Amino acid sequence: MTEHLLIESGGPATGPAGERFAADAARLAADGHRVVLFLVENGVTAALPGACPAVEELLRGGGELWVDSLSTAQRALAGADLLDRARLVEMDEVAGKLLEPGVRAVWH
User: pTM, whole model, 2 decimals?
Assistant: First the structure.
């Protein structure tokens, strides 16, 4: 099965588009696909509890949530502020995922 890496840079402040993008990730996970939702730039705010219900749905459906450590630091967020299953990552890990065979990436 194809693995998906969905990258969200806008977050909840950009309106319903970010929520819909996260909902797409949740649907893919619910359909049995391997899904990583990577939040970067302002998108990291979607990893705050209650900020984006679709992100929490993704986690319930078996998807992974990666959050850019630099973007969180720039916004004065700590790992303890984020959803329990959010994983802080560095860009080298994201780059490695992008280079894996069979990974489809979409940036929003």
Answer: 0.95
